[in-house]
Every structure is written in structure tokens, then in C-alpha cells.
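Page 37, top half.
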Amino acid sequence: MTNLPEVNVRNILKNSKALVSLMDNIRGQSLAIVPIYTFAIPEDYQKNESNPVIRVTPVPKEDAHYADNERFLVDTFVQVDFWINKKDTSGLALMQDLIYQELHKNGYERYQPERSIDPDYTEQIMVTGLFRGRIYNEQS
């Protein structure tokens, strides 16, 4: 496990066979790669036919917990976004729930879900979730 929460979350989601299968089912086909990215989605995958795609980004916030003047626990925060075609949202709730379940069983808790039309891609709905995870100091 890396100390980069966005990489940890991306790897958790990429390794979920159920999530990858659901994404392929919603899309109607599998892609050459698993379209789950950190920071930016390549332009080739910003098209309706590539949806759903997932992006994981860090949230610039960190809470540390101390004991005996030693940092033993850090709360980290990430944002998980996915895009789905506005014309067929039948898999939206299932995908949102599956992302939550995968991250929850790996120590992340969602604290703010949201859905909206993406102003840059008006044919797509952007689904956002903010998650908090914990990293324990290995030396504690």
C-alpha cells in the first residue's frame, strides 16, 4: 500500500472485478484498459462511448492524530468522480453503491455524494463522492 491515497483508491477500484464488470456492462463493451484514473482522464476516454469512466483525485486536507507526541494516524481525503451517459442512467445507482461498498470495506467512508450534469460534457451526468480514509503509522 502506498501513502498516496488517490493511488490506493484507484487500485482498490481497478481490482474490483464486480465494478469493472459492471462498467463494461453499462458501456456495452469492455475497453483495452480499465478506465479508472488519477487526476486526469485521457482525451480519448472523455467520450460518451467510453462511459462510465472514473477519476480519483486527492482533496487538499489531512487530519492527524497524535499520541505521546507521535503521529499515529492520518485521515486522508479523496474525491471519486464518474461519468455516465445522461440518456441511460439505469446503472448509476448500482455503480455508486458498488464504489461505496468497495471503498468502505477497505477503510474509506463516503461523506458527501452528489450528482449533476457536467457543464463541460452536457450529455453526461457526473457523480461525485468525497471519501475519508485512514493511514496508520507503521511504526506505532
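Page 37, bottom half:
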Amino acid sequence: MNLPRSSGRVSNRRVTFLAVLVVVAAASIGVGVVGAQSGTTIDSCTTIDSPGTYTLSADLSADSTCIRIAASDVTLDGNGHTIEGGSSGVGVEASGDSTLSGVTVKKVETTGFTRGILFENAEDGTIAGSTTTGATEGITLLSTDDTTIKGSTATGNALGVELRKASGNTITGTTANDNKYGLHIERGSRHNEFTDDIASGNALWDFYSDRYSPGVDSDTSVTDLDMGSVTVDLSGTNVGARAEPVPGDGPSGQQAVGTGVRTTDYGEGSELSLTIHYTDGNVSGVDESSLALFSTDSGDSWSALDSSSVDAGANTVSATDVPHPATIAIFGTTGDSGSSGNADASADTGSSNDSGSAATDTATPTATATATPTATAAPTATLTATSTATETSTTTRTATATTATETPTESSAPTTTVPTADTADTTAVSASGSTTAAGTERAAATGPNASPTSSSNGPGFSLVAGLGALLVAAVLAVRRDR
């Protein structure tokens, strides 16, 4: 029997429709495969030699280097896991035969090792939210440029954060406490910036810059470095600095303001510019305009620095060509500080709040000020209820006063020990404080525990989804036949 031509067209449409569904189902299955390959989990020590994102799925341990990144554009997410090592090797090392770029290491914790986290011969990388403890060098940038260390912590190491032959790097929001040296910059590292970091309780120096040839400026910039009892800005070459209580009685007729800073030098061509921050509480009863930096060798005799200047608005006192070794501290003459300070600001705020409360009391008891165009609250204005005002049975007003008090603390600094230069290209400082010369800059690339990486299944559609689509197509075709 001959079918009408229109029936043929319908059948063709059904075939076309079914073919489209098959293609969609196949594409869905393909998406599932790509999703599964978008990330890789790591559950053992290994070498990463392909770009991509890798995530630790377990704590790891190794006697030598555990994870080595040998490719650019790699992100290693420690996922809060710990990599535990002995006295050699590196916890996480990013290094290759050629310069690596775009490597990110985040949320990794290492304990032990010669170096906790090492970037060598790399650029444009990031170390974020990571912690290193108990290593010779906590976080190290070696021959690495334009890399950022942020929100990380190095404690209980010989060198907390180490920059060697590394330039143009940024270290921000990072803590280096209770090491032998907190922030350690050496051997031609230049144009590095430290901002909003913490370095305190370190056995020798919170900040240390050394091994620069005479006449070479490190161009290091340190801003808002919290040394525990004092905050400083500084730039220097072949010098060290740490917080130290003000010794002795101070200059005659002068009152110490806050905590002092101990400085030292290392080799020829050393120079230091220093800014010490103070609080409004520090200058209570002191003429703020008289503040200046003074220096002393032992606390017996103090001398004002000729280049000293005060910025009352910023609460800082600064000087260039700061003596080293010496103890530097802020002093000022007693008397009215003449500073508006935070206390005056608080008083003004309180007065403004009281005025606002008085203005509110003049409003009609049953009217509440709202954000409507017809109701306006001002210190001298009377609120007028309109047809759009919101009625309420009660009126609630809350006055809040805030008082901020800052009290500086002081801690005794350890005995000053100035290390001597050695001729080796690499200086390895043990966590216990000993210094030895090493023949090479780089730790072993891989450990005996190295193993291939494994991949995990990622999100996406499965084969079941594709078959489901085919089933739907079949049902629709049957219903259309009916």
C-alpha cells in the first residue's frame, strides 16, 4: 500500500529528531570524560610533569624530596594536608631544566626537610596559605623572580623566609616567627617588597639582608613589618633589625615612646633607612612635635639623629643613614602632645551621636524615620510625619560608644650574634642554629617514594545519561506513531 507523501515527511522528521538526540547523548558522555580528567588527586610522593591542577588527598611522609613540580602552569592544592620529612630533601619543590612559570602551591603544610617549600629557577608563581616548620629553610625563593608569597607561615626553622638570587618578588601577609632568622634576603636579591608581614621572636634577627657586594643596593622595601612590640618600615643592605626594649634611662629631659629597634651591619657598604611607628597612647603626656629618633651603642649615651623627622598624621618617626650596630628609639619632651589623636576623634563622634539623639527626640512619638523621600533626619531638623511615614507603637534608639586603647608590650631580645661570611656559594643553616657550607644550591629532585600520579573521576554526564536520552527519544517516537 502506498503511503501519503506527508507520512514520509513525518518519518523523516522523526529520524532526524532521533539522530539529534543521539548526537546530544554522545556529547554528554564526552563531557563526562573531560570532567573526569580536569583534576588529579595525589596520595603519594611523586613528580608532576604536566600542566594542570593537583590536589593532595592524604597526609604524606618521605625521607627525601616528596613532591617535585617540573612543569609550568601547575597548581598544587595541599587541601590542608601535611607532608612530613626528615633532615634532608624538600617537601614541595618547583624546579625544572628550564625556567618554570605560573606555578601555584597553596594550602600545604610541611614539617622537617632541608627546605619546606622551594621555588628554583621559576617566575610568576604563587605560594599561598602554606605553613613550614622545623626545616633548615622554611620557604625559599632561589633564582626566582616576580613571585608572590602571601598568607603563609614559617615557624621553628633556621631561616623563615629565604630569598637568594631572587628579585622582583612580593611577600605579603606572611608570618615568620620563632626562627633563627625571620626574613632573610641575600646574594644579589633586589627590588623585593615586603608588606604587612609579621616577624617576631626570632633568635637573631627579624629582618636580615647580607652578602651584597660593596656599592650594590638591595633596593629592598619593607612596609608595616610587625616585630611584635613595634612596627617598622625599612630599607637596607647588609644590615639586620629586630625589636628591642629601650635600654638605660634615655636622654635627659626626654621620655621614651614605645619599643626600640636593634640594628647590626654585615660587611662593607651597609646602609639603613628606618621608620618606627607609634600609637596615640605612646605619646600621652609628650609633645608630639618634639619626637625624634635617638641612637645608642649601650644605653649609656644617646644621640639624636640629624635626619630624623616626625609625621604626626601618620604616627611615625623616620631617619636615613641610621647607625648600625646600635639601638634606635623614639624620644620626646614631656608636655602637651597637641595631637588630636584617636581619643579626640572618639569624643567628636560621641558629641555627634548625642546631637543626633536630641534631634530624634523632637520627632512625633509615633513616627519612625524611614528611607522615604519625604522624611529627613538631621541634627537640627524636625522630622515631619507624612502619609507615607511608617507607624510604630514604640521608638527604639541605641547609642554606642567605642573606646580604643593601645598598650605596647616589650620583650627581652636574645643575645646578639653576628655571623661571619663564608666563601661557599650556598649557606645552609641548621634549625638548631649551626651554619655549614653546601656544594650545590638544589636538593635532590625526587625521593625513593616517587610514584606516578593518579586521577579521580570528575563531574559530568555518564553513559547512563546518554542511554536515558535514547530511551526518551524512543518513547517520543512511539507516541508520535500513535
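Margin note: The chain has a mean pLDDT of 75.
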